[in-house]
Amino acid sequence: MSTSEVHAAIQALYGQNAEQQKAANAFLVQFASTPAAWETALALLGVADPAVQYFGANMLYGKCKSDWATLPEAHRAQFCEAVGTHLSQLANAPGSSLAARRLCLVMAAAATRAVPARAFELVDRALALAAAPSSAAPAGVTLALEMQAAIAEETNDAASAAERQALVDALVPRLTDVLGTAERVFERCSVSPSGGAGDSNAGSAATFESLRAAALHAALAWLRLGERGGGGIVLSPGQLASSRGGLLRGALACLGADDA
Fold first, then answer.
1. How many domains is the chain partitioned into structurally?
2. Which of 70, 98, 114 finishes a domain?
3. Distances from the Cα of 99 to the Cαs of 26, 49, 58, 166, in angstroms?
4. Which residues contact 192 (CB under 8 A, 6 or more apart)?
5. Same domain, 108 and 138
6. What is 169-186 written as a DSSP string?
7. Could you report the per-residue pLDDT of 209-250, keeping only the tens digit for each?
8. Is there a contact between 28 and 37 (Cβ–Cβ < 8 Å)?
9. What is the spatial distance between Cα 99 and Cα 63, in angstroms, rounded to a whole number?
10. What would the pLDDT profile of 115-126 be if each residue is shown by its tens digit?
């Protein structure tokens, strides 16, 4: 099955002809269950159409969640590297933000199904993305936060208690660093609604809300590490206040704004 054939089916799915949509949907659902979907979905990420990019990213996410065991171990590192390359390319591409955000979930799903060390490496990648000069732009910070949140959520969704505990043990040492990313976002947003000083464009309020929501999501996800195993909330409010006071204040302000 060629990439062009799958691309044509996606276009039919998004078209106006109901019969063609039905046939395309049936074809794509069946194709997504095949081994060929791994390579084809990666190829779709290189298509110029953002809708096709998102479809490819979403197909990869489904494959990682349901069919990870079918991807040969010898190909897994190469797969993760390829997804990371596409994420770097789509992160700032016009119209590709949804596909980039979905790829953050793909990377988290893959890393947490590999070995704990792979998940730890992905946390470091997210921390580096958030700290990079280019991440002064809200898009980079948002992707870093979403990647961090996804890693924690995939950890809590691990297939077995043993796998979950191994991941938690590997990730907890990075907890304060991850919370620091969210804390810096809250601090930046308190200075400027857009997260950047002097930015007064019309989208600043929406940017502010998006960054705050992503920061809160990531912080809460990490504080719930190991929740399904009877743990969760790995720092008490007192510990959080003493180690990451800005985060606690920002989270409370965010929750207060939501209640209002």
1. 2
2. 114
3. 22, 11, 8, 30
4. 198, 199, 204, 208
5. no
6. HHHGGGHHHHHHHHHHHH
7. 888 889 999 999 999 887 665 455 566 666 766 666 667 666
8. no
9. 15
10. 999 999 999 999
